[in-house]
Amino acid sequence: MDKRNRLNAIVKNCGLRFNRGDVKNWKHNEFLDLSREIFSETGVNISSNTLKRVFGKISVDDDYLPQQATIDALIQYSGYIPADPERVDTVAGSDNNTSAEAEVSIENKINPSKKRITLIAGFAILLILLVLLVVKMTPSRNSFPGSIKQVKIEGVLPATVLFEVQAPDIPDSVFIDFGDKTPFIFLDPTQKSIAHNYLFPDVFSVKLRTKKSILLKSPVCIRSDKWIALGYHRKADLPQKYYQFPAVKTTADSLFHIDDEKLHRFGLDTSSSIFTGLGNYTSTGYFKDDFVFNTTFKNSSSSRGIYCNSAQIKVSGFNGSIRFKFVNAGCSFRVVNVVSEKSYEGKNKDLSNFVLDLSNWNTVKLVNKNKQVFLFVNNKLLFEDNYEQSLGEIKGVFVEFEGNGFIKTCDLFTGEGKSLFHF
Question: What is the 3-state secondary structure (H, E, C) of the chain?
Fold first, then answer.
Protein backbone atom coordinates (compact mmCIF):
# COMPACT_ATOMS: atom_id res chain seq x y z
CA MET A 1 0.00 0.00 0.00
CA ASP A 2 1.52 3.38 -0.99
CA LYS A 3 1.78 6.30 1.43
CA ARG A 4 -1.26 8.14 0.05
CA ASN A 5 -3.56 5.09 0.32
CA ARG A 6 -2.16 4.35 3.78
CA LEU A 7 -2.93 7.90 4.91
CA ASN A 8 -6.47 7.61 3.54
CA ALA A 9 -6.97 4.42 5.55
CA ILE A 10 -5.67 6.11 8.72
CA VAL A 11 -7.95 9.11 8.17
CA LYS A 12 -10.94 6.82 7.62
CA ASN A 13 -10.23 5.10 10.96
CA CYS A 14 -9.99 8.52 12.66
CA GLY A 15 -13.40 9.49 11.28
CA LEU A 16 -14.94 6.22 12.46
CA ARG A 17 -13.57 6.65 15.97
CA PHE A 18 -14.56 10.33 16.21
CA ASN A 19 -18.10 9.26 15.22
CA ARG A 20 -19.57 12.59 14.11
CA GLY A 21 -21.28 11.30 10.97
CA ASP A 22 -20.23 11.79 7.35
CA VAL A 23 -17.01 13.83 7.08
CA LYS A 24 -18.54 15.74 4.14
CA ASN A 25 -20.95 17.34 6.62
CA TRP A 26 -18.33 18.33 9.21
CA LYS A 27 -18.03 22.02 10.06
CA HIS A 28 -15.24 24.01 11.71
CA ASN A 29 -16.32 22.99 15.22
CA GLU A 30 -15.94 19.29 14.45
CA PHE A 31 -12.31 19.83 13.46
CA LEU A 32 -11.66 21.92 16.61
CA ASP A 33 -13.14 19.15 18.77
CA LEU A 34 -11.14 16.47 16.94
CA SER A 35 -7.94 18.51 17.44
CA ARG A 36 -8.60 18.72 21.18
CA GLU A 37 -9.44 15.01 21.40
CA ILE A 38 -6.25 13.97 19.58
CA PHE A 39 -4.15 16.25 21.81
CA SER A 40 -5.81 14.84 24.94
CA GLU A 41 -4.87 11.28 23.94
CA THR A 42 -1.50 11.73 22.21
CA GLY A 43 -0.06 15.00 23.53
CA VAL A 44 0.41 16.19 19.92
CA ASN A 45 -1.30 19.43 18.87
CA ILE A 46 -2.63 19.15 15.28
CA SER A 47 -4.26 22.39 14.13
CA SER A 48 -7.81 22.37 12.77
CA ASN A 49 -6.52 23.60 9.37
CA THR A 50 -4.07 20.69 9.13
CA LEU A 51 -6.92 18.29 9.92
CA LYS A 52 -9.03 19.93 7.21
CA ARG A 53 -6.24 19.35 4.68
CA VAL A 54 -5.84 15.73 5.75
CA PHE A 55 -9.61 15.10 5.56
CA GLY A 56 -9.88 16.78 2.15
CA LYS A 57 -11.81 19.88 3.26
CA ILE A 58 -9.00 22.18 2.05
CA SER A 59 -7.52 21.56 -1.40
CA VAL A 60 -3.86 20.44 -1.48
CA ASP A 61 -1.36 19.16 -4.06
CA ASP A 62 -1.77 15.56 -5.18
CA ASP A 63 1.48 14.55 -3.44
CA TYR A 64 0.68 16.36 -0.16
CA LEU A 65 1.55 14.48 3.02
CA PRO A 66 1.55 15.94 6.56
CA GLN A 67 4.58 15.84 8.86
CA GLN A 68 5.54 12.44 10.24
CA ALA A 69 4.67 13.61 13.78
CA THR A 70 1.12 14.33 12.56
CA ILE A 71 0.83 10.91 10.89
CA ASP A 72 2.14 9.18 14.04
CA ALA A 73 -0.44 10.99 16.19
CA LEU A 74 -3.27 10.07 13.78
CA ILE A 75 -2.17 6.42 13.86
CA GLN A 76 -2.12 6.42 17.66
CA TYR A 77 -5.54 8.08 17.88
CA SER A 78 -7.21 5.94 15.20
CA GLY A 79 -5.78 2.61 16.30
CA TYR A 80 -4.88 1.91 12.65
CA ILE A 81 -3.21 -1.46 12.03
CA PRO A 82 -1.84 -2.16 8.52
CA ALA A 83 -3.03 -5.25 6.70
CA ASP A 84 -0.81 -8.35 6.97
CA PRO A 85 1.03 -8.53 3.59
CA GLU A 86 1.73 -12.24 4.03
CA ARG A 87 -1.97 -12.96 4.36
CA VAL A 88 -2.74 -10.82 1.31
CA ASP A 89 -0.18 -12.71 -0.76
CA THR A 90 -1.54 -16.06 0.38
CA VAL A 91 -5.12 -15.16 -0.47
CA ALA A 92 -4.08 -13.72 -3.82
CA GLY A 93 -2.31 -16.97 -4.73
CA SER A 94 -5.14 -19.27 -3.70
CA ASP A 95 -6.50 -19.49 -7.27
CA ASN A 96 -3.38 -21.18 -8.70
CA ASN A 97 -4.35 -24.27 -10.71
CA THR A 98 -3.33 -27.78 -9.90
CA SER A 99 -1.06 -28.00 -12.95
CA ALA A 100 1.21 -25.34 -11.43
CA GLU A 101 1.31 -27.31 -8.20
CA ALA A 102 2.18 -30.44 -10.18
CA GLU A 103 5.05 -28.60 -11.88
CA VAL A 104 6.45 -27.59 -8.50
CA SER A 105 6.15 -31.14 -7.27
CA ILE A 106 7.95 -32.51 -10.34
CA GLU A 107 10.70 -29.91 -9.99
CA ASN A 108 11.21 -30.86 -6.36
CA LYS A 109 11.52 -34.50 -7.31
CA ILE A 110 14.06 -33.72 -10.05
CA ASN A 111 16.17 -31.54 -7.71
CA PRO A 112 15.35 -32.43 -4.07
CA SER A 113 18.09 -30.14 -2.65
CA LYS A 114 16.84 -27.00 -4.40
CA LYS A 115 14.16 -26.29 -1.79
CA ARG A 116 16.68 -26.67 1.04
CA ILE A 117 19.13 -24.29 -0.66
CA THR A 118 16.35 -21.72 -1.19
CA LEU A 119 15.36 -21.88 2.48
CA ILE A 120 18.97 -21.44 3.64
CA ALA A 121 19.47 -18.48 1.28
CA GLY A 122 16.23 -16.90 2.47
CA PHE A 123 17.25 -17.35 6.11
CA ALA A 124 20.65 -15.77 5.44
CA ILE A 125 19.08 -12.75 3.75
CA LEU A 126 16.65 -12.36 6.66
CA LEU A 127 19.52 -12.51 9.16
CA ILE A 128 21.46 -9.83 7.26
CA LEU A 129 18.40 -7.56 7.20
CA LEU A 130 17.89 -7.99 10.94
CA VAL A 131 21.53 -7.08 11.65
CA LEU A 132 21.26 -3.98 9.47
CA LEU A 133 18.05 -2.97 11.26
CA VAL A 134 19.66 -3.35 14.70
CA VAL A 135 22.67 -1.29 13.59
CA LYS A 136 20.39 1.43 12.26
CA MET A 137 18.25 1.56 15.42
CA THR A 138 21.21 1.51 17.83
CA PRO A 139 22.46 5.04 18.63
CA SER A 140 26.04 5.62 17.59
CA ARG A 141 28.65 6.65 20.13
CA ASN A 142 28.54 10.13 18.63
CA SER A 143 24.75 10.45 19.08
CA PHE A 144 23.39 12.68 21.87
CA PRO A 145 19.97 13.47 23.39
CA GLY A 146 19.85 16.92 21.80
CA SER A 147 20.24 20.28 23.50
CA ILE A 148 18.13 23.24 24.54
CA LYS A 149 19.70 26.40 25.93
CA GLN A 150 18.11 29.61 27.17
CA VAL A 151 19.62 32.53 25.23
CA LYS A 152 17.54 35.56 26.15
CA ILE A 153 14.54 36.65 28.25
CA GLU A 154 12.62 39.70 27.07
CA GLY A 155 10.29 41.37 29.57
CA VAL A 156 9.10 40.34 33.02
CA LEU A 157 5.37 39.57 32.76
CA PRO A 158 4.65 38.67 30.04
CA ALA A 159 8.09 37.32 29.13
CA THR A 160 9.38 35.92 25.84
CA VAL A 161 12.22 33.42 26.13
CA LEU A 162 14.46 32.58 23.17
CA PHE A 163 16.06 29.13 23.15
CA GLU A 164 18.83 27.61 21.04
CA VAL A 165 17.88 24.02 20.17
CA GLN A 166 19.43 21.04 18.46
CA ALA A 167 17.38 17.95 17.70
CA PRO A 168 18.71 14.61 18.98
CA ASP A 169 19.94 11.98 16.56
CA ILE A 170 17.03 9.52 16.94
CA PRO A 171 14.37 8.14 14.55
CA ASP A 172 11.40 9.25 16.70
CA SER A 173 9.58 12.57 16.39
CA VAL A 174 10.84 15.06 19.01
CA PHE A 175 8.78 17.72 20.78
CA ILE A 176 9.43 20.64 23.12
CA ASP A 177 7.42 20.86 26.34
CA PHE A 178 7.78 24.40 27.74
CA GLY A 179 6.56 23.31 31.19
CA ASP A 180 3.61 25.72 31.46
CA LYS A 181 0.88 23.28 30.31
CA THR A 182 0.84 24.64 26.75
CA PRO A 183 0.72 22.01 23.94
CA PHE A 184 3.93 20.27 22.92
CA ILE A 185 5.65 21.78 19.86
CA PHE A 186 7.15 19.53 17.16
CA LEU A 187 10.88 20.15 16.74
CA ASP A 188 12.03 20.12 13.14
CA PRO A 189 15.41 18.30 12.89
CA THR A 190 16.92 21.34 11.12
CA GLN A 191 15.57 23.90 13.60
CA LYS A 192 18.16 25.97 15.49
CA SER A 193 16.09 28.33 17.64
CA ILE A 194 12.58 28.69 19.08
CA ALA A 195 10.82 31.31 21.24
CA HIS A 196 8.02 30.93 23.79
CA ASN A 197 5.78 33.42 25.58
CA TYR A 198 5.24 32.91 29.34
CA LEU A 199 2.33 34.71 31.01
CA PHE A 200 2.76 33.85 34.70
CA PRO A 201 5.78 33.50 37.00
CA ASP A 202 7.35 30.24 38.14
CA VAL A 203 10.39 28.05 37.57
CA PHE A 204 9.52 25.92 34.54
CA SER A 205 11.19 22.69 33.45
CA VAL A 206 11.61 22.87 29.65
CA LYS A 207 11.92 19.40 28.14
CA LEU A 208 12.97 17.78 24.89
CA ARG A 209 10.91 14.61 24.60
CA THR A 210 9.35 11.97 22.42
CA LYS A 211 5.73 10.97 22.90
CA LYS A 212 6.78 8.34 25.45
CA SER A 213 9.93 9.57 27.17
CA ILE A 214 11.80 12.67 28.32
CA LEU A 215 15.23 13.12 26.73
CA LEU A 216 16.52 16.11 28.71
CA LYS A 217 15.39 19.00 30.92
CA SER A 218 16.47 22.61 31.28
CA PRO A 219 15.01 25.06 33.84
CA VAL A 220 13.89 28.62 33.11
CA CYS A 221 12.75 31.16 35.73
CA ILE A 222 10.06 33.69 34.86
CA ARG A 223 10.19 36.51 37.40
CA SER A 224 7.50 38.76 38.78
CA ASP A 225 9.90 40.91 40.87
CA LYS A 226 6.96 41.70 43.16
CA TRP A 227 4.06 40.02 44.91
CA ILE A 228 1.24 39.21 42.51
CA ALA A 229 -2.18 37.61 43.03
CA LEU A 230 -3.80 35.30 40.50
CA GLY A 231 -7.30 33.95 39.91
CA TYR A 232 -8.30 31.25 37.43
CA HIS A 233 -10.77 28.42 36.91
CA ARG A 234 -8.52 25.42 36.19
CA LYS A 235 -4.78 24.70 36.16
CA ALA A 236 -5.09 23.97 32.43
CA ASP A 237 -6.42 27.51 31.86
CA LEU A 238 -3.33 29.22 33.26
CA PRO A 239 -1.24 29.41 30.06
CA GLN A 240 -4.01 31.19 28.13
CA LYS A 241 -6.42 32.79 30.58
CA TYR A 242 -6.09 34.03 34.12
CA TYR A 243 -6.68 37.25 36.04
CA GLN A 244 -4.09 39.25 37.95
CA PHE A 245 -5.11 41.24 41.02
CA PRO A 246 -3.31 43.75 43.27
CA ALA A 247 -1.36 41.81 45.90
CA VAL A 248 -2.04 44.02 48.92
CA LYS A 249 -3.35 43.66 52.44
CA THR A 250 -6.52 45.46 53.39
CA THR A 251 -5.89 48.20 55.93
CA ALA A 252 -8.87 47.17 58.07
CA ASP A 253 -7.64 43.71 59.11
CA SER A 254 -4.14 43.44 57.58
CA LEU A 255 -5.14 40.40 55.53
CA PHE A 256 -4.75 39.44 51.90
CA HIS A 257 -8.00 38.32 50.30
CA ILE A 258 -9.72 38.80 46.93
CA ASP A 259 -13.44 39.13 47.61
CA ASP A 260 -15.94 37.28 45.42
CA GLU A 261 -17.39 40.53 44.07
CA LYS A 262 -14.01 41.56 42.67
CA LEU A 263 -13.41 38.07 41.22
CA HIS A 264 -16.82 38.19 39.54
CA ARG A 265 -16.23 41.71 38.24
CA PHE A 266 -12.99 40.59 36.57
CA GLY A 267 -14.80 37.73 34.83
CA LEU A 268 -14.45 34.68 37.10
CA ASP A 269 -17.57 32.60 37.74
CA THR A 270 -17.49 32.31 41.54
CA SER A 271 -20.33 29.77 41.52
CA SER A 272 -17.95 27.22 39.93
CA SER A 273 -14.54 25.93 40.96
CA ILE A 274 -11.91 28.67 41.14
CA PHE A 275 -8.27 28.92 42.24
CA THR A 276 -6.58 31.92 43.81
CA GLY A 277 -2.95 32.40 44.74
CA LEU A 278 -0.26 34.76 45.98
CA GLY A 279 3.39 34.58 44.94
CA ASN A 280 6.68 36.33 44.30
CA TYR A 281 9.49 35.18 41.98
CA THR A 282 12.82 36.99 41.64
CA SER A 283 16.58 36.45 41.76
CA THR A 284 17.71 36.19 45.39
CA GLY A 285 21.37 35.19 44.98
CA TYR A 286 20.83 32.65 47.80
CA PHE A 287 22.04 29.13 46.96
CA LYS A 288 21.88 27.28 50.28
CA ASP A 289 19.40 24.53 51.17
CA ASP A 290 19.00 26.23 54.53
CA PHE A 291 15.90 28.40 55.11
CA VAL A 292 12.66 28.85 57.06
CA PHE A 293 9.29 29.50 55.42
CA ASN A 294 6.31 30.75 57.47
CA THR A 295 2.72 31.45 56.48
CA THR A 296 -0.66 31.73 58.20
CA PHE A 297 -3.78 31.18 56.11
CA LYS A 298 -7.31 29.85 55.91
CA ASN A 299 -9.60 28.92 53.02
CA SER A 300 -13.16 30.11 52.56
CA SER A 301 -15.80 27.43 53.11
CA SER A 302 -17.49 26.06 50.02
CA SER A 303 -21.26 26.21 49.68
CA ARG A 304 -21.23 23.50 46.99
CA GLY A 305 -21.93 20.56 49.31
CA ILE A 306 -19.68 17.58 48.60
CA TYR A 307 -16.48 19.30 47.56
CA CYS A 308 -12.68 19.11 48.04
CA ASN A 309 -10.95 22.31 49.13
CA SER A 310 -7.19 22.63 49.26
CA ALA A 311 -4.33 24.95 50.12
CA GLN A 312 -0.79 24.53 48.81
CA ILE A 313 2.58 26.08 49.68
CA LYS A 314 5.65 26.06 47.44
CA VAL A 315 9.26 27.19 47.74
CA SER A 316 10.96 27.17 44.33
CA GLY A 317 14.66 26.85 43.57
CA PHE A 318 16.20 26.97 40.11
CA ASN A 319 16.88 23.21 40.17
CA GLY A 320 13.98 21.94 42.26
CA SER A 321 11.20 22.80 44.69
CA ILE A 322 9.50 21.86 47.95
CA ARG A 323 5.71 21.73 47.81
CA PHE A 324 3.08 20.62 50.32
CA LYS A 325 -0.68 20.38 49.81
CA PHE A 326 -3.35 20.41 52.51
CA VAL A 327 -6.97 19.28 52.00
CA ASN A 328 -10.25 18.95 53.84
CA ALA A 329 -11.44 15.60 55.27
CA GLY A 330 -12.06 12.84 52.72
CA CYS A 331 -9.72 14.29 50.07
CA SER A 332 -6.22 13.05 51.01
CA PHE A 333 -6.27 10.93 47.82
CA ARG A 334 -5.62 14.19 45.96
CA VAL A 335 -2.51 15.18 47.94
CA VAL A 336 0.76 15.30 45.97
CA ASN A 337 3.80 16.56 47.89
CA VAL A 338 7.25 17.19 46.42
CA VAL A 339 10.60 17.48 48.20
CA SER A 340 13.23 18.03 45.49
CA GLU A 341 13.69 14.65 43.74
CA LYS A 342 11.16 12.89 46.02
CA SER A 343 7.38 12.83 45.68
CA TYR A 344 4.61 11.56 47.95
CA GLU A 345 1.16 10.84 46.50
CA GLY A 346 -2.07 10.20 48.36
CA LYS A 347 -3.18 7.66 45.76
CA ASN A 348 -0.55 5.17 46.94
CA LYS A 349 0.44 6.41 50.42
CA ASP A 350 -1.46 7.34 53.58
CA LEU A 351 -1.28 11.15 53.67
CA SER A 352 -4.28 11.67 55.92
CA ASN A 353 -2.12 13.78 58.28
CA PHE A 354 -2.33 16.51 55.60
CA VAL A 355 -6.07 16.83 56.25
CA LEU A 356 -6.82 20.16 57.98
CA ASP A 357 -9.84 22.21 58.87
CA LEU A 358 -9.06 24.82 56.25
CA SER A 359 -11.88 27.10 57.34
CA ASN A 360 -9.86 27.87 60.50
CA TRP A 361 -6.55 29.73 60.65
CA ASN A 362 -3.57 27.41 60.16
CA THR A 363 0.08 28.34 60.73
CA VAL A 364 2.64 26.46 58.65
CA LYS A 365 6.37 26.50 59.34
CA LEU A 366 8.71 24.78 56.88
CA VAL A 367 12.29 24.35 58.13
CA ASN A 368 14.98 23.23 55.71
CA LYS A 369 18.25 22.53 57.50
CA ASN A 370 20.89 21.46 54.98
CA LYS A 371 18.44 19.29 52.99
CA GLN A 372 16.72 17.95 56.11
CA VAL A 373 13.09 19.10 55.91
CA PHE A 374 10.72 19.57 58.86
CA LEU A 375 7.12 20.68 58.39
CA PHE A 376 5.20 22.03 61.39
CA VAL A 377 1.47 22.83 61.23
CA ASN A 378 -0.04 24.65 64.21
CA ASN A 379 3.15 23.83 66.18
CA LYS A 380 2.83 20.10 65.50
CA LEU A 381 5.49 18.20 63.49
CA LEU A 382 3.66 16.86 60.45
CA PHE A 383 6.48 15.71 58.18
CA GLU A 384 10.22 14.97 58.30
CA ASP A 385 12.52 13.73 55.53
CA ASN A 386 15.74 14.59 53.68
CA TYR A 387 16.72 14.87 50.02
CA GLU A 388 19.84 14.72 47.86
CA GLN A 389 19.44 17.11 44.89
CA SER A 390 20.03 20.75 45.85
CA LEU A 391 17.25 23.23 45.03
CA GLY A 392 19.82 25.64 43.60
CA GLU A 393 19.28 29.40 43.84
CA ILE A 394 16.03 30.19 45.69
CA LYS A 395 13.74 31.89 43.18
CA GLY A 396 10.29 32.25 44.68
CA VAL A 397 7.41 31.34 46.97
CA PHE A 398 3.74 30.67 46.21
CA VAL A 399 0.59 29.98 48.22
CA GLU A 400 -2.41 28.65 46.29
CA PHE A 401 -6.02 27.97 47.27
CA GLU A 402 -8.61 25.80 45.63
CA GLY A 403 -11.30 28.30 46.46
CA ASN A 404 -10.78 31.79 47.82
CA GLY A 405 -8.30 32.04 50.67
CA PHE A 406 -7.05 34.49 53.28
CA ILE A 407 -3.37 35.11 54.16
CA LYS A 408 -2.04 36.86 57.26
CA THR A 409 1.69 36.37 56.70
CA CYS A 410 4.06 34.87 54.15
CA ASP A 411 7.82 34.99 54.81
CA LEU A 412 11.00 33.22 53.78
CA PHE A 413 14.22 33.67 55.79
CA THR A 414 17.71 32.33 55.24
CA GLY A 415 19.22 30.05 57.86
CA GLU A 416 21.05 33.09 59.18
CA GLY A 417 17.77 35.02 59.59
CA LYS A 418 17.97 37.31 56.54
CA SER A 419 14.60 38.02 54.92
CA LEU A 420 14.32 36.90 51.29
CA PHE A 421 10.54 37.30 50.87
CA HIS A 422 8.10 39.16 53.11
CA PHE A 423 4.39 39.86 52.67
Answer: CCHHHHHHHHHHHHHHHHCCCCHHHCCHHHHHHHHHHHHHHHCECCCHHHHHHHCCCCCCCCCCCCCHHHHHHHHHHHCCCCCCHHHHHHHHHHHCCHHHHHHHHHHHHHCCCHHHHHHHHHHHHHHHHHHHHHHHHCCCCCCCCCEEEEEEEECCCCEEEEEEEECCCCCCCCEEECCCCCCEEECCCCCCEEEEEECCCEEEEEEEECCCCEEEEEEEEECCCCCEEEEECCHHHCCCCCEEECCCCCCCCCCECCCHHHHHHHCCCCCCCCEEEEEEECCCCCCCCEEEEEEEEEECCCCCCCCCCEEEEEEEECCCEEEEEEECCCCHHHCEEEECCEEEECCCCCCHHHECCCCCCEEEEEEEECCEEEEEECCEEEEEEECCCCCCCEEEEEEEEECCEEEEEEEEEECCCCEEEEC
